[in-house]
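Progress narrative, work stream C.
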Amino acid sequence: MISLNQLIRNRFDRWLKRRLPATKQIMLNSGNIFIFPSASGLHFLITLFILFLLGTNYQNNLILFLVFFLCSFMVTSLLLSYQNLAGLKLTAVKPQAQFAGKDCLFHLRLMKLKNRGNDIHFSFQKGNSALQTVIDEEQVLLYHFSKMRGYFNPERVTVSSTFPFGLFNVWTHLDFDFKVLLYPIPLTNKLPAEQLTHNNQDESSQQFSSGIDQFSTLKNYQQGESLKSVAWKQLAQGRGMLSKQFEQSIAGERLLDISLLQHIPLEKRLSFLCYQVITLEKTGYRYGLMLVNQKVEMGSGTLHQHHCLQALALFQQAFE
């Protein structure tokens, strides 16, 4: 059964969705800023009311003057509180793919058309990160924690302030439609190579390409080549300017197949494969990925790694 607080919160969220729909850019104004007295503001109003009763009851003009002066002070504070946020332009920056199980980073670009706002706070409405929001002159860095892989939306950003005297809470809840791809949590594993490898070629054989691993041959020195590659010993023997050529081994190919890890729970399988993809990319192997009916062909490089990790992040078909 839904509690009264939950019912009120759901109705408020629906109203907020109609009032402030998702957008990538917004300028704060009277149509999207909300102002309510803070706890200090309520105490201030109660004090004014008590003073007003005393002034009228005892017909004390000095007390009444003080009440009217403090009322004007509160109205001025209300206007200053609004102007502190009004004119602030916020633009969402498309987030880069990240890993689940860590604090996800989100960027907002900010610009104040007039005077820069003071004491403005940014946070996710339902945030759960231990990291503090970072605010500088032109951008805001917000954090949100999530363990779930796939596309993640941290929901609304709360912009608030109690400037200048703490008598009013000025706030708004903005939906920037953040949507970030979260790769599975990479779990370190030392699974046997044959468990994850399908390779039709002899793995003991190696191909070589130009590199810096081991000496290959000598060739005539070309103008502009690094002097570090000059064969100084041969030059001293009178054989002329020669440069050393090196080669590095090209690692074999690996096909990572999720079906070979059936004894492991699905999410853990994906995390193991995520770690293997990262490791193979670092070690220079060409690798591919087999996820039931989905296959990522052999390749290497940053873009290929992203395609593999994206396939792991969006894999939803659980099987035993």
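Work stream C, second folded protein:
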Amino acid sequence: MLNIDLRGKKAFIAGIGDDKGFGWAIAKALHQAGATILVGTWTPMVSIFTTALASGKFDLSRRHSDGTMLEFAAIYPLDATFDTMDDVPSEVRENKRYKDVVGYTVSEVSERLAREHGTIDILVHSLANGPEVQKPLLETSRKGYLAAISASSYSFVSLLAHCAPHMPRGGAALNLTYIASEHVIPGYGGGMSSAKAALESDTRTLAFEAGTRYGVRVNSISAGPYGSRAAKAIGFIDKMIDYSAKNAPLQRQIEAEEVGNAAAFLASGLASAITGEVLHVDCGLHAMGVSLDSPSFTKAS
């Protein structure tokens, strides 16, 4: 019987701020497979997240099927839109949510990971933000578009560039994308579709560069619509979930656990020859060329 065995591996997951999203599900799957879990949480949310964790708010979600609990070996403040402190504007440095926090840029977090944990075997990018996501692309400002690219795609390039030198050969890096990179999803605006397309293109290029230079595999998971806290900011996620359940080949919505399991596979030795891949975990929705609930198919003949 094949088992996913990540015992002795250390995984850094950037982008966990609660127990509702894919980042949490991936952490849970990797931990259940034996990995040590290190977390990067958006700087303004660190205190909220750690307080909720300590209070037991997430205890039910932390529980594995065998009764053991998901544990985090360390939680680091991280704002992946900044590579160094020189990139942080003064108004951000002085913001009440940042001014008492140190070491939250990508370079600082990666250096701390190397100093405190040596090597990182698995890097997971579960970050995305588009401040104008509810605006059509034609109404998106340059500032909003570039912000979406910076937070949602370049942040992965930066994290891998800083972490890969501290990853062993055979290490694995993963990111999360969405089908709006391939097809038009009305309402998924603000440059986010562009950011996801860039992320997938970067995945292929980084698979070559990180593979030849460090022996690190780089893959992407294109997950179906899911009602995470971040997804709710889009404003129409419930409609997308309903659409997927009616039109995907499996005719149901995905579970976060399924994305976590796919990530555990891609991070494991079972996927040792897989890199530069975009793996769809969406009940097959990406394969459909037409919608089954279209009036063209449902109207009486």
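The CA atoms of residues 48 and 207 lie 35 Å apart. No further action is required on this item.
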